[in-house]
Model the fold of this input.
Amino acid sequence: MTRSQGPVVALVPAAGQGVRLGESKPKAFVDLGGKAMLIHAVDGLLRSGAVDRVIVIVPEEMVEATQAMMSGDVTVVAGGSERTDSVRAGLAVADDARYVLVHDAARALTPPSLIARVVAELRSGRSAVIPVLPVSDTIKTVDVLGAVTSTPERSELRAVQTPQGFTAELLRRAYAEANGVATDDAGLVERLGERVRSIVGEPTAFKITTPLDLLLARALVEEGTR
Ligand code: CTP
Ligand code: MG
Done:
């Protein structure tokens, strides 16, 4: 087998509660134009034509109902209390993967073309690939009391999206050595001292986090952008 072949398995962490969104159900199950956010995310992965199999990670009490919502090669497993625990649970049932994508259910409107670009980078030999966009706000670091401690140079900053893609071997190693939690998977790979490649992301791959984000997502769906 050459380096570029082998199955691509996508892990979709969807086990969060969506506290910041403040809806009555876990965020991934919130409706977006007649379809749960999670379904949009899974459909996008399958429509990319670059993903062989999807593993969805949901709150334990939602496993059965979620499996019933799915068609195609989709496995549903229970997640954990932190996103890292949920990804780890998905990785545990991805034995056949040569490449792994980790893709937030909350990035429901991610264009399939972005997913395909991440996989193409992996197949061309990169072992860790993340989509990023420039930030438009100036970003500052602050201490616990709110005093500003620094102003990183904005031109060097990027906002990070998903899907993040890895060789299965590298992501497994990163999770085996991970201690504590990380807000993205590439962060764990960086701690190993491995190179992470960034590619240009997509505005519509934004994470639906707040009620304002949900309003935007619903408007985009309504408008037929997806
Ligand atoms: N996630 C998960 N398991 C967790 C926490 C988060 O699978 N224990 C998933 C979420 O379902 C989401 C993605 O990770 O698809 C990104 O997390 P985030 O946007 O923070 O979602 P929530 O944790 O649900 O939202 P909040 O932090 O506002 O509660
Ligand atoms: Mg969260």
Remarks:
- The longest strand covers residues 128-134.
- The chain has one domain: 8-222.
